[in-house]
Fold:
Amino acid sequence: MDTPTIGILGGYGGTGKHIVRLLLEYTDAHLVIAGRQILRARQFAKECNEQTGKERVCATYAHAADPESVMHAFDGAQLLIVASPTGRFTEETATAALEAGCDWLDIQYHTPKLAVLNRLAQRIEEAGRCFVTDAGLHPGLPALLVRYAASCLDVLEAANVSAVFNLQGGFPRTPSLYEFTRELMRSRCGVYRDGQWRFFSGLGAGETRQADFGFGFGMRLCAPVMLEEMQALPEMFPALRETGFYIAGFNWFVDWVVMPLLWLSGRVAPRLWVKPMAQLLYWGTRLYANPPYGAVVKLEACGWQDGRRQVLSLQLYHPDPYLFTAIAAVAGVLQYLRGHGRRAGLWLAGHLYNPQEALRDIQTMGVKMQQEISPIQGICPFCEE
Ligand SMILES: NC(=O)c1ccc[n+]([C@@H]2O[C@H](COP(=O)([O-])OP(=O)(O)OC[C@H]3O[C@@H](n4cnc5c(N)ncnc54)[C@H](OP(=O)(O)O)[C@@H]3O)[C@@H](O)[C@H]2O)c1
Structure:
């Protein structure tokens, strides 16, 4: 294969920067980074080229809302990575990628983009393009980890994924804070129990569970959050009785003051409230930030292996949640570049990539992994059956 060219929209943002550095280290691709501030893009490209001693990164202008600029910026690129908080412009950006003949990978936490991409699914397939959405940490890893559990056990009965993350200094006040806040405002609580999806009103208080994250985070109370990638898992693994994604709190102020307000405002005039709520989240995570910092994603699963009931527990940890997100996304890009991670059509990242290989790559790029498989004596500690 010729040396590929990869475009990164938002390639000098919090996550985008890490994606660029990882691609420079782990691939030989040429990179085009773009965003609205050409000077910032040029400065970062210059730094990267000086560090590597090669001219592998170039910078240009693109605005996600302007398809012409996206097509122009990424003309000749094989893959476009969307690392900008521009989910609301998915129609414009995705159409431009299709017109430019680019494959696609996005990491945005923005549920409405999925409806837009689904509308384009047939066009994507007919064009033979590979569009991967919801890559990254969460979304991104939870379904992949459940598929990993299924690859380790003969029969998978229960698999829950929990996550905790804490940023040193709190959330930065960037446009992605608004996208994240809006997503929290619209989030739904749901888990799969006893063969059916159950959705809860409120903050899912009745369905919280404890998870021991280790790595200094210890035992945390987690609330269920519905992620699109979890929905198809019971169909993939018919013996699965229980699955869900749970997120731990940030600190007492955010958990007991900000989150209920976010939930309420999400149901009453969300557009009006998104900016004040983002400010509250910013101050809440900044003023009450306390260590440890970093992110842990934990899988707890049980099932049968060689006729014995087994429990599988796995934790992934990185001290920098942004770098962890970038590593999870780049693990997918590595499979894409090797060929088997590129299939025509629209995919959720958690459903497409080979989980064993992704976990190997994630560790190579600096994520710590702890895993334990042991026989169950009596009642399973995770699903309590
Ligand atoms: N899946 C996961 O686990 C996960 C985890 C973390 C973040 N995320 C997602 O990752 C995305 C990026 O987050 P971040 O925190 O890295 O963002 P960030 O630090 O705010 O960086 C945003 C980048 O996007 C560019 N950008 C913003 N608006 C743009 C537009 N209209 N057109 C073109 N470029 C634009 C910015 O440059 P200019 O402002 O100069 O244009 C900047 O380079 C967000 O969608 C966030 O939800 C996902």
About this structure: The mean pLDDT is 94. The CA atoms of residues 47 and 53 lie 10 Å apart. The pocket of NAP is lined by residues 9-10, 12-16, 35-37, 40, 62-65, 83-86, 107-109, 136-140, 174-176, 179-180, 325 (CB under 6 Å).
